[in-house]
Amino acid sequence: MESDFYTLHDFMVYTKGVVYYLIIAILIGFLGFWSFLTARDDD
Amino acid sequence: MSHDAAHSKPVMSPMTVIAGIILIVGLFVTVRRFTGGLAATTNLSDYTPWGLWIGFDLLVGVALAAGGFVTSAAVYIFGMKKFHSAVRPAILTGFLGYALVVFALHYDVGRPWRLPYPFLVQSGTTSILFEVGACVALYLTVLLIEFTPAPLEWLGFKKARNIVVKLTLALTILGVILSTLHQSSLGALFLIAPSKLHPLWYSGYIPIYFFVSAIIAGLSMVIFEGSLTHKHFADKMDEAHLKEKEDVVLGFGKAASFVLAGYFVIKIIGLAVDNEWRYLATGYGAWYLVELLGFIALPCFLYAVGVREKNLNLIQWTSGLAVLGIVVNRLNISLIAFNYHLPADERYFPHWMEFAISIFIVTLGVLVFRFVVTRMPVLYEHPDYEAH
Amino acid sequence: MSISRRKFLGWIGAAGMSATLAKPARAAGAKHFEGYPDTDGVLFDAVKCIGCRRCEAGCNKVNDLPEPEQPFDDLTVLEKTRRTHADTYTVVNKYEVARQKSPLYRKIQCNHCLEPACASACFVRAFTKTETGAVVYDASVCVGCRYCMIACPFEIPTYEYDKALTPRIMKCTMCYPRIKEGLLPGCVEACPTEALTFGKRKDLIKIARERIYRHPDRYEDHIYGEHEMGGTNWLYLSPVPFSRLGMREDLGTTSAPELTAGALGAVPMVVGLWPVLLTGIYAMNKRKEKIARQEQEAAVSSAVSETEARARDNLDKAMEKARADKEKSVETAVKKALEEAAREAETKDSEEES
User: Fold this and answer.
1) SS3 per residue for B110-157
2) How many domains are contained in chain B?
3) pLDDT over 70 at B10, yes or no
4) Residue contact B196–C165, C-beta within 8 A
5) Which of B203, B254, C51, C299 is the most buried (most CB within 10 A)?
6) Which of C33, C119, C120 sits opposite A5 (nearest CB)?
7) Interface contact A20, partner B, CB < 8 A
8) What CATH number is attached to the domain comprising B178?
């Protein structure tokens, strides 16, 4: 894994790219999870 | 309703003439920019690639448009319902501010039609600018959706309006996240250039400084702009708006004072952490102290006095000082303390056409704001949709 | 809830252990990148440069750049300090340094950083650090934001400011296409002295060390570019401190991506935690409001029932009084009637008697 990247720059292009996709998933996930968490609240 | 303010008020006519001249000059420079390039319209150089259009139009513009997220967070997340009447004008200013920032960028970048490239063609995820771009684009969309209830009420689309209102909380939280990220990242843009930005302004904390000062800018702009709209559009305001105005000025003034205190403290900590005291005795140090004492400590104190004595006038004047302080800070970082190492003859001073475009864009903003508040329910609640 | 505390801690420990045992510990901060192996570079030696500007001419030719106003053999150009421009990828400047017999010269061009600031700053990845060490630029995606120019510590990238709609960033490519063909970079090929040496970067460092070792009197003990901004593929030797040759010695050794890594790392933390924090604050406020509302309702209803009770009480009292009054009046009426009746009877009796 480590040897796939020769430079810190290339490593960061890859990891930050993954993180940006995760961010989108996180935002949608939170919305879903909050509605699951509060679906049976009284009000 | 369609043709009032401009025609019925003869007071506006000299202003209209000035606005007209600004627009004509702006259009002329626009043509120059897109035929002769930046060389024909700016004093930018290979040493100074970012000038007034980035320093003022982008950095100052985004900071001053922070009122939208600050106000909506205060009302919808922190539950300060008594500021409700301030939300719509703040969101409108925020939206116009961001829209104009994006508009201004079209002048500055080389190939404006490629602005979506980072997201559609090839992403430079290591760039702070990528993050700024993504957040600004998304936040502009969020602000647009947040503002839609006003035009929808104006046009009478009840169903669509109610759907948007239901999304308020989610949009507000998303707005705060995006604002946190891009406001701080505008400062983080300069992290990559420690050798070019004067050590007094360069700090590892610069993203935090930008975020905190954006909150100050947002709070102060709401007060500042509120005093202006109150002067010129009082006839458009409803009972609630007029009644809550005092609460808003006092509440936001108090918040701004305390945030300024925090900002002052972390600026001092920044000096201590990087051991930069010795620079204070230099010319740049004197200018730094002017910013620190005149544009941070002073408005902090004046706001506090204004709040204690319930002196609305003082708070409103102080908001102008605080806003000016943000302008000074952003210009210091992008222009004045940037490239401090260059000899004087290589330093940058904006071309008059750069000023012309910046003034042109601010004028456009004011005109659109006036168009909207004289028509849509921004400064008053629409009778069909009270108290949501 | 059957998991014991000890068991739970044990799991955490095990997770930590297995993570450390699986492969040599590599925390993000400890990650280390050596760069592409065997990259090319150029060693510039200020001791050997004679300021002839032939490298400028060579660069101009191989890159098909526009002809300059003054020809390359006109050395009066050197009287002014110059920099790279959109039509000049490389420039030689003259420096008069005290206690040096003759003026010194220094060549400027892209240093081809090991971790390029331009590449790190570019939001469309228009810059690539290639396997040869050359940093190349792709105009087909460039938006023209000029952040690369802000980022570059050596102030190398330039911009075609006079182009209205198709401006490009212009900078030295280390003659990447020529290197790929096995040719020398244009400037190196044109150099009449040994001021420019092309080779593998690691070999150039050895050559430079050797020169310093052999002639400690002639060279500063510093290879500029070995560590500056994380290291560059161009390396420099000088007889005087590099700042005398207009080179900055305060750049530090931190590479550009490291400078922004912290700020970028904070982004997902904000996205991960802000929703939790903000929704939490919202929920607390909502709860507070709900409790306030309930309390208010309770207060109102108790107030209502109290008033009701008091009202009923009053009513009862009034009724009682009314009843009492009524009884009293009935009593008096009866009494009166009886008295009257008695009186009537008396008069009747007396009438009958008389």
Assistant:
1) CCHHHCCHHHHCCCCCCCHHHHHHHHHHHHHHHHHHHHCHHHHHHHCC
2) 1
3) no
4) no
5) B203
6) C33
7) yes
8) 1.20.1630.10
